[in-house]
Design brief:
The structure is a single chain. The protein is α+β, with helices and mostly antiparallel strands and about 675 residues long. The protein folds into four domains: about 1-145, Multidrug efflux transporter AcrB transmembrane domain (Multidrug efflux transporter AcrB transmembrane fold), CATH 1.20.1640.10; about 150-195 and about 535-675, Up-down Bundle (Multidrug efflux transporter AcrB transmembrane fold); about 205-305, Multidrug efflux transporter AcrB pore domain (Alpha-Beta Plaits, 2-Layer Sandwich), CATH 3.30.70; about 360-450, Multidrug efflux transporter AcrB TolC docking domain, DN and DC subdomains. It has 24 helices and 17 strands. The strands form six sheets. Strands 7, 8, 15, 16 and 17 form a five-stranded antiparallel beta sheet that branches. It is elongated. It starts with a helix and ends with a helix.
Length: about 675
């Protein structure tokens, strides 16, 4: 019955959350609904119901209560824990506030999650102080007195193991505190080696291959490369179901590209049917090697359709990591681009290196000799008009067809405009009526000119892009910075920036580095006003670094880099860890007010009474996140680091809360008791 009461809070809190989502216009999707942990929702209900059952079990005489007596029992027991239950829910609500400060891409992704979790927790808080006590008085067994249920036997077994451990910890306090501090130092060192990424890449199940051929190539050449590449993939890789290609820009130019750029969308079969490779990165590597071997001179960049568009929205380039060099001289920019591209090729994990072509477009340059023009009485405009008419065409009149009018454009035929000689032999009429070839007044040459001139904020720039496979973005950027700093010397007026997902990671970390301390400070203020003690607030705050130990170790064991998803996990973890500390310290204070002065007795008695709610709170929250941590479904990649951090953190936070926190309490309270 107690389990049903606690479980009934979940659908009711979700109903409240859905109503609030509808009211505030928050849509239901993977991020807004997928990250809700039912364990966090029922925390308050668990504390209230457990307190009621414990109070009933403490009755000296076994008897059956009537409804009035039951109401009074529930009121008395729930009142004692109401502050802890409500306060714990408020703290969990506060720790999610920093997520609301996120902006940009990360804000779009994670703010709906924070809003939905907030709505659900507010609903759970209201239910914990109203519905849960009421339904407990009606549904819970009215038999007062000692009983032995299965859960009692489990808790008793845990207590039999825990008692000698806490007794040893109280005898060897320095060893316990020193071990906890050592574990914290080791976890910080491990955290620095984790690396970082913005958000884990989703496995979309398909590839988007950005294919580039020589600048200025014709449409027929692009079509040929596209067909050969698609045929090669279909013939050599049984994992490929079909290949769809897109060349250049469509009639509706929503994605403008030159004709030398081809998008190959490779639709893959189910993972169970793969034979060439076992992972997506391995398959991409094999496909890339096969294509480059068969099609020399063609560059291929492997990504996923949504990922490629996502990158393009963020930086204007399609690669995971984008380096931009700013400056004025195009030749100098190209030189820097080639240098950085060569450095990137030698970095492990950097694949599909792309250096934006600035030069390389053949151009016919007609350089007019103004002195000769003056001798013949010609103007620049007259020569330009002849060139324009011969090659681009000039309107010589109009043709009428019913009510439609068409310009009649005259220009040289194809064979008469095929080379520079044709330009030189064009005749222009002088002011004296003579006709002279253009070569008399101009020098005609073919030169390699700028292919494109790209600008950001009116500054010329070149892009060096690369995709990341088998490694985290942050460690690659750090290695790039170190090598570029030593091997590339930028002249005054030139600078480099690192964009893409790394830029978003840095912005989000910077914003969270401000918002999280503010939220923690707010929690500390609430703790101070609750316990009216600065030392108690600090004592409960030790749960935060203790919980971080497990979260960091869990990421390290699962070989996951730090990401914004993991950061959100740490935020959720801190709330639950602080909640456990509140439950324990509140019980110690209650026992102290009853007149017990022996600290060891306070700790042993308090931990015995609060062992069940502390373990239940952590277990329920961990089990709530377990499906996310183990899920292999679509979108699970984003939620997996979050769940991993919470489960790993709660494992150590619970252990350390029950061992280290009581030891620290004896240090903090010793002076007061002696006084």
């Amino acid at each position: 019955r107690a389990g049903l009461i606690v479980a009934s809070v979940i659908p009711l809190a979700m109903l409240f959350a859905i109503c609030m989502m509808n009211l505030f216009g928050v849509s239901g999707n993977l991020m807004s609904l997928g990250a809700i942990d039912f364990g966090l929702i029922v925390d308050g209900a668990v504390i209230v119901v457990e307190a009621t059952m414990h109070h009933l079990g403490m009755s000296a005489v076994a008897r059956k209560l009537d409804q009035e007596e039951m109401n009074e029992e529930v009121y008395q027991s729930a009142s004692k824990m109401m502050r802890s239950a409500a306060f714990g829910q408020v703290i969990i609500l506060i720790v999610y506030l920093p997520i609301l400060s996120l902006t940009g891409i990360e804000g779009k992704m994670f703010r709906p999650m924070a809003q939905t979790v907030g709505f659900a927790i507010v609903g759970a808080l209201i239910l914990s102080v109203t519905y849960v006590p009421m339904i407990s008085s009606v549904l819970l067994s009215k038999k007062a007195g000692p009983t032995r249920t299965v859960s009692d036997r489990i808790i008793a077994a845990i207590h039999n193991v825990y008692t000698p451990v806490i007794q040893f910890a109280l005898r060897r306090r320095i060893i316990v505190v020193g071990s906890a501090f050592t574990a914290l130092v080791i976890s910080v060192i491990l955290f620095l080696t984790l690396g970082g990424e913005f958000i884990p890449q989703l496995d979309e199940g398909d590839f988007a291959i950005e294919t580039r051929i020589l600048t200025g190539s014709s449409l027929s050449k692009s079509t040929d490369v596209s067909q050969k590449s698609a045929r090669l993939l279909l013939d050599h890789f049984p994992e490929v179901e079909r290949v769809v290609s897109k060349i250049g820009t469509s009639e509706i130019p929503i994605d403008p590209m030159p004709t030398e750029v081809i998008d190959l969308i490779v639709v893959l079969k189910e993972r169970s049917e793969w034979t060439s490779a076992s992972t997506r990165d391995e398959l991409a590597q094999k496909m890339s090697s096969r294509l480059k071997e068969a099609m020399p001179g063609v560059s291929y960049g492997f990504q996923q359709p949504i990922q490629m568009r996502f990158n393009e929205l963020m930086t204007g380039a399609r690669q995971d990591l984008v380096l931009k060099v700013y400056g004025e001289d195009l030749d100098q920019l190209e030189q820097y681009g080639q240098q950085i591209g060569q450095i990137a090729e030698r970095i492990d994990g950097a694949e599909d290196i792309y250096v934006e072509p600035i030069n390389g477009l053949p151009q016919i340059v007609v350089k007019l000799n103004r002195q000769r023009l003056a001798q013949f009485g010609l103007s620049v405009e007259e020569v330009n008009r002849v060139l324009r008419t011969g090659f681009s065409g000039e309107s010589a009149g109009q043709v009428f067809e019913d009510e439609k009018r068409f310009d009649l454009v005259v220009r040289l035929n194809q064979s008469s405009r095929a080379s520079t000689d044709d330009i030189q032999r064009l005749y222009v009429t002088t002011s004296a009526g003579r006709q002279i070839p253009i070569e008399e007044v101009a020098d005609v040459q073919i030169k390699v000119g700028p292919n494109q001139i790209q600008r950001d904020d009116t500054k010329r720039r070149i892009v060096i892009g690369l995709n990341v496979r088998g490694r985290d973005v942050e460690s690659i950027v750090n290695e790039l910075k170190q090598k570029i700093g030593t091997k590339v010397k930028f002249e005054p007026g030139y600078r480099i920036t690192y964009g893409g997902s790394f830029e978003n990671l840095e912005e989000a970390k910077h914003r969270l580095s401000i918002a999280v301390p503010v939220a923690l400070a707010l929690i500390f203020v609430l703790l101070y006003f609750t316990f009216h003690s600065l030392r108690h607030g600090l004592l409960i705050f030790t749960a935060i670094p203790l919980s971080a130990i497990g979260g960091i170790f869990a990421l390290w064991l699962r070989d996951m880099p730090f990401s914004i998803s993991a950061g959100i996990g740490f935020i959720a973890l801190f709330g639950v860890a602080v909640l456990n500390g509140i439950v324990l310290i509140a019980e110690f204070d209650r026992l102290k007010k009853t007149g017990i002065t022996d600290l060891k007795q306070i700790v042993l008695r308090g931990t015995e009474l609060r062992l069940r709610p502390v373990i239940m709170t952590a277990t329920v929250a961990s089990l709530g996140f377990l499906p996310m941590a183990l899920s292999l479904s679509s979108g699970a990649e984003v939620q997996r680091p979050l769940a991993t951090v919470v489960i790993g953190g709660l494992a150590t936070a619970t252990l350390l809360t029950l061992i280290v926190l009581p030891v620290l309490y004896t240090y903090f309270e010793k002076q007061d008791v002696q006084a």
